[in-house]
């Protein structure tokens, strides 16, 4: 990396923020236009009298006041550059009551911030590390323009300041999100590229951050060369959301920016009684509501902890080293002044001892004696937790140990996880404890890599029975993941992120490895590819015929039938195969034959070539299954059109144009581009067999029906995670199915049931099934959210245990 003076480093950080603001402010005006279009569309819809009046009021309000939202937002966003670029002090503990209006505003802005965080978490994390390196700080300020919540809050605040209502925002927030997220993600990528070009941390890996303090378990596995052992202390910090200085109630992650009082939590309320209900009341799709309920659990946990220890977990650390590379840092956010590491060796040693004990105990498990093993493990977990709490240097550390222990007790007691997998889940307790202590945002965001990894592994294994998991490649991968995490105890969330990516890549292969699934995937991918090619061929044919005097009957035949013929021929034989080339040539021959023929020689040529041309047309239609009477009807139309061409007085098409068309058709693939998401795929079992010659008897095909579904449902369908289990109610038969594959263009989705059946579902039908409740997740909550909820229930019933 290039050596710089402190002044030049600060200037470079400033330029990065200016570029980020400049890149994102350009999205505000297009967002306003899209919002206007949405409100206009709603105002024109037929609905109940009350809804129609509300939609008209929204539209008129935006017409009158929305024009000021753009300049106000631009001004406020630019003004945000003037502050929050340095990491501020924690100040004192702030506990205050917040009004309902502020709560509702927080909810609106946090939703938008969360959507940005979901898409940009890793780009944002890398940018945060580079800015911290330049500025020599431990964390970005809560109001730093680089944080997703800063832009989200600016847009919502200025919306309200311009006189528009929260209710109207809620009705257009999906439009804002769709238009904003990609722009912000691109801005983060550009900011990282800008800094890399100037030599700021060109490579971010763990080689310089790993510090070995003890021996490694003999069965630890390497991570494919991603890491290297090092004798030097960590020199940088890793953090996802950070932000323990975010003010009242802030873990720093976007959804964790409310004070406990903000969600209406009072004494005596149950652990699940707040947060989720408040958020759900604001409306949203099932996917959004599920995320909000999950976030409500984390908010309630924060409320509980704040009430018992007088502050957030990230604010109650012992004074000590601060910033990247500090002695007390364990690859965390840098906010950790004391605790694991050199600042608290007794605590670090106790965690290492507990981890070694778990590994030794796990190696002694005997298959067939699961009940005894689980009982012994739970007892050992409880004993080790008590020992760790005694050595914890702060009340925040004591609370963290207890919460993590309760979470893993819940996971260990989860009987839907096969025993052989639970053994490995249990061994993650100490690595997760290290991360939770160093990175308190683990308790504030659902997108922390440690949570994401455990949730994804849990969502996979809870659908299998014990016999299917034991000794399988899936169990082996879980074992490898855990061993890698154990091998690098001081790398923070980074190792969780890396193995999470590897686990997802493994799933994509593991779930589609059977021959039957491979055949289905191949068929589905070809159907999608064929449709995309047909769309592009149609576009190219339209371009070719745009300025040619061609009869409408011939145009319709070429666009609706022959484009499909060329696509299926290219797919089945190859684009340059002799059969495909012959069919391409037939298109230009048909155009010429159907044009005016004032010349006697041309008419004679048509008569001579007609039998061969009709034979090629029949051959092509045969590829599409157009046989018998339907084929004869098409041939009759074409014959009639050719007869009319003999008598036509119109201008003939010059031979040069016909020849140019023939040449372009011959190399048509050179001119087409990716059509993106194909729509209206002719998908059914019969068409698959007919088009591709594949037996689809083992495949249940569920095509689109043309039913309109909302954008939020389509988004939900696109965001389903491979490996997740669902309950599918199809044709009045309920099956437990696992989502195993999505096609490249996200139009086709494959689900596999435990009884060997497969369901190939088109995206529109998938979205409508989600909307109708015919496809529902087998688990309402992710594994870590459920574990957090159960831990909170125990703490709520017995609050003294938090610090005892």
Write the layout of secondary structure elements.
Elements: H1 6-25, H2 28-43, H3 49-65, H4 69-79, H5 100-135, H6 148-161, H7 166-197, H8 276-280, H9 286-309, H10 345-362, H11 370-391, H12 395-412, H13 419-426, H14 429-438, H15 449-461, H16 466-469, H17 473-487, H18 493-510, H19 515-545, H20 552-572, H21 578-593, H22 600-623, H23 628-647, H24 655-666, H25 685-692, E1 699-702, H26 711-718, E2 725-730, E3 733-742, E4 748-753, E5 758-762, H27 763-772, E6 775-777, H28 783-797
Parallel strand pairs: 1-5
Antiparallel strand pairs: 2-3, 2-6, 3-4, 4-5
Helix pairs in contact: 1-7, 2-3, 2-7, 4-6, 5-6, 5-7, 9-28, 10-11, 10-14, 11-12, 12-13, 12-14, 12-28, 13-17, 15-18, 17-18, 19-20, 20-21, 21-22, 21-24, 26-27
Question: Can you walk through the features of this model?
Answer:
The protein has 804 residues and is mainly alpha-helical. It is 58% helix and 4% strand. The chain is built from 28 helices and six strands. It has helices at 6-25, 28-43, 49-65, 69-79, 100-135, 148-161, 166-197, 276-280, 286-309, 345-362, 370-391, 395-412, 419-426, 429-438, 449-461, 466-469, 473-487, 493-510, 515-545, 552-572, 578-593, 600-623, 628-647, 655-666, 685-692, 711-718, 763-772, 783-797, and strands at residues 699-702, 725-730, 733-742, 748-753, 758-762, 775-777. The chain has a six-stranded mixed beta sheet. Strand 2 (725-730) and strand 3 (733-742) form a beta hairpin. The longest helix is centred in the N-terminal third of the chain and has 36 residues, at 100-135. Mean pLDDT is 75; it is low at 84-99, 206-283, 318-343 and 674-681.
């Amino acid at each position: 990396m290039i050596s710089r003076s402190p002044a030049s480093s600060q200037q470079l950080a400033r330029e990065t923020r200016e570029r980020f603001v400049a890149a994102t402010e350009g999205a505000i005006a297009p967002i306003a236009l899209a919002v206007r279009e949405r409100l206009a569309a709603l105002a024109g819809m037929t609905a109940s009298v009350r809804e129609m009046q509300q939609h008209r009021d929204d539209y008129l309000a935006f017409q009158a006041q929305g024009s000021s939202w753009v300049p106000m937002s631009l001004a406020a966003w630019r003004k945000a550059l003037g502050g929050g670029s340095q990491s501020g002090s924690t100040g004192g503990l702030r506990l205050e009551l917040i009004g309902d209006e502020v709560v509702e505003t927080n909810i609106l802005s946090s939703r938008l911030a969360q959507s940005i965080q979901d898409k940009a978490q890793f780009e944002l994390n890398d940018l945060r590390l580079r800015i911290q390196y330049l500025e020599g700080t431990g964390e970005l300020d809560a109001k730093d323009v680089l944080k997703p919540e800063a832009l989200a809050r600016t847009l919502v605040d200025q919306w309200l300041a311009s006189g528009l209502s929260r209710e109207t925002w809620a009705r257009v927030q999906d439009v804002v999100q769709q238009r904003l997220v990609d722009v912000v993600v691109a801005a983060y990528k550009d900011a990282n590229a800008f800094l890399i070009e100037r030599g700021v941390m060109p490579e971010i890996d763990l080689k310089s951050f790993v510090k070995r303090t003890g021996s490694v378990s003999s069965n630890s596995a390497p991570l494919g060369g991603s890491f290297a052992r090092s004798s030097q202390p960590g020199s940088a910090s890793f953090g996802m959301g950070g932000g323990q200085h975010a003010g009242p109630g802030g873990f720093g992650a976007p959804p964790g920016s409310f004070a406990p009082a903000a969600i209406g939590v009072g004494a005596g309320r149950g652990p699940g009684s707040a947060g989720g209900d408040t958020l759900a009341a604001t409306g949203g799709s099932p996917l959004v509501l599920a995320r909000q309920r999950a976030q409500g659990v984390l908010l309630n946990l924060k409320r509980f902890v704040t009430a018992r220890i007088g502050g957030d977990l990230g604010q109650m650390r012992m004074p000590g080293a601060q910033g990247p590379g500090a002695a007390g840092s364990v690859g965390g956010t840098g906010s950790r002044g004391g605790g694991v590491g050199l600042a608290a060796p007794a605590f670090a040693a106790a965690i290492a001892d507990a981890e070694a004990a778990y590994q030794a105990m796990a190696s002694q498990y005997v298959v067939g004696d699961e009940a005894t093993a689980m009982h012994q493990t739970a007892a050992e977990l409880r004993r080790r937790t008590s020992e760790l709490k005694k050595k914890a240097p702060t009340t925040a550390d004591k609370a963290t140990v207890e919460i993590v222990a309760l979470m893993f007790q819940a996971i260990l007691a989860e009987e839907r996880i096969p025993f052989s997998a639970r053994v490995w889940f249990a061994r993650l307790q100490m690595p997760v404890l290290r991360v939770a202590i160093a990175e308190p945002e683990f308790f504030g965001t659902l997108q922390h890599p440690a949570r994401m990894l455990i949730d994804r592994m849990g969502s996979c294994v809870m659908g299998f029975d014990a016999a299917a998991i034991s000794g399988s490649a899936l169990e082996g991968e879980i074992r490898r993941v855990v061993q890698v995490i154990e091998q690098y105890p001081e790398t923070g969330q980074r190792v969780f992120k890396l193995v999470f990516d590897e686990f997802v890549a493994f799933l994509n292969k593991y779930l589609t490895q059977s021959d039957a699934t491979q055949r289905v995937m191949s068929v589905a991918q070809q159907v999608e590819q064929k449709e995309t090619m047909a769309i592009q061929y149609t576009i190219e044919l339209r371009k070719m015929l745009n300025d040619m005097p061609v009869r409408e009957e011939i145009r319709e035949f070429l666009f609706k039938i022959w484009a499909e013929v060329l696509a299926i021929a290219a797919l089945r034989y190859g684009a340059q195969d002799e059969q495909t080339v012959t069919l391409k040539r037939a298109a230009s021959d048909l155009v010429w034959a159907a044009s005016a023929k004032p010349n006697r020689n041309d008419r004679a040529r048509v008569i001579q070539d007609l039998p061969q041309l009709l034979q090629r047309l029949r051959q092509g239609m045969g590829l599409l299954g157009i046989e018998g009477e339907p084929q004869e009807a098409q041939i009759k139309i074409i014959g009639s059109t050719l007869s009319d061409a003999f008598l036509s007085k119109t201008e003939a098409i010059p031979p040069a144009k016909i020849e140019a068309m023939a040449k372009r058709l011959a190399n048509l693939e050179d001119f087409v581009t990716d059509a993106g998401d194909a729509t209206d795929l002719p998908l059914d079992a019969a068409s698959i067999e007919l088009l591709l010659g594949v037996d689809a008897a083992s495949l249940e095909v569920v095509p689109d029906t043309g039913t309109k579904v909302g954008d939020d449902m389509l988004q939900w369908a696109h965001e389903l995670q491979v490996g997740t289990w669902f309950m599918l109610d199809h044709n009045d038969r309920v099956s437990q199915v696992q989502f195993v594959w999505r096609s490249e263009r996200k139009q086709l989705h494959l689900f596999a049931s435990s009884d060997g059946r497969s369901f190939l579902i088109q995206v529109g039908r998938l979205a409508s099934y989600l909307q109708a409740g015919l496809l529902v997740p087998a688990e309402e909550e992710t594994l870590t959210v459920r574990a957090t909820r159960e831990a909170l229930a125990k703490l709520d019933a017995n609050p003294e245990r938090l610090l005892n």
